[in-house]
Amino acid sequence: MKYCSECAHPVLLQIPPDDNRPRYVCSQCGVIHYQNPKMVIGSIPVWQRDGETKILLCKRAIEPRYGYWTLPAGFMENNETTEAAAIRETEEEAGANIELHQLFSLLNVPHVHQVHMFYRATLLDLDYVAGIESLDVKLFSETEIPWDEIAFPTVGHTLKLFFADLANITDGGGYGFHSLDITKPIPRPAS
C-alpha cells in the first residue's frame, strides 16, 4: 500500500475529477501523487586520433544487465539540467573528462516508463577509470564493440546511428538528431 507524503493516509488508484487517467490520490486530503517517466541521460564519449574513432563504454557492475556494456548514463537528478546529468554520469561511471556537444538521440521506452537521451561528447584525455557502478571501462572501435553484449536496446540503437552518421561525414554529411520509440522489452534469458 502507498501512503500520502502530505498526511500519511493511504492513496488509492483512481481517476480524479477533471482528469482522464488513473492517478494515486490520497483518500484523506485528496493530493494527487503523479507518477511520471524517468529520464536516463548519458553521453557518447568519442576519442578520435590518426583517422580512427573509438567510443568509451562501461561494463555494468549493477543490475539490471550486470556484466553487459553500455554508454555512461543514468537517472537525471532533481535540480539538474540534461547537460549536467550527462557530464556527471560520465564522470561517475567512467571517470572521464568530456566536452559535451549536441543532443544526439532521444529514445522513448514507454514499457519501463523511461526516456533515454544521449549527447555526443569528446573525450578530453585518456585518464578514465571504472566508477563504482562499472566493472570496466574501455575504448572500442566500431568493429571491436561487443554488439551481443550491449546492455540496452537504446544503447545499441544509439551506437549504430552514431556510426552511420560518422560514415556519412566523409560524404559531406554531418551528425543528425535521432528520435526512436523502443516498444519491445529486452527478452529474458531462459531459466
Note down, in words, how this protein is organized.
The chain has helices spanning 82-94, 153-169, and strands at residues 11-14, 23-26, 32-33, 38-49, 52-60, 69-70, 73-75, 98-109, 114-123, 134-140, 178-181. The protein has 191 residues and is an alpha+beta fold. Strands 4, 5, 6, 7, 8, 9, 10 and 11 form an 8-stranded mixed sheet that branches. It has a 3-stranded antiparallel sheet with strand order 1-2-3, with no helix packed on it. The longest helix is centred in the last third of the chain and has 17 residues, at 153-169. The mean pLDDT is 94.
Summarize the model shown.
The protein is an alpha+beta fold. The chain contains two helices and eleven strands, in the order βββββββαβββαβ.
The secondary-structure element order is EEEEEEEHEEEHE
Give the strand tally.
11
Q: Mean pLDDT, rounded to whole units? A: 94
Q: What's the helical proportion of residues?
A: 10-25%
Tell me the radius of gyration.
20 Å
- The share of residues in extended strands comes to 35-45%
The end-to-end distance, rounded to whole angstroms, is: 31 Å
Number of helices: 2
Sum up the overall morphology in one term. elongated
Low-confidence stretches: none
Indicate the structural class: alpha+beta
Q: In this structure, how is the largest beta sheet organized? A: 8 strands, mixed
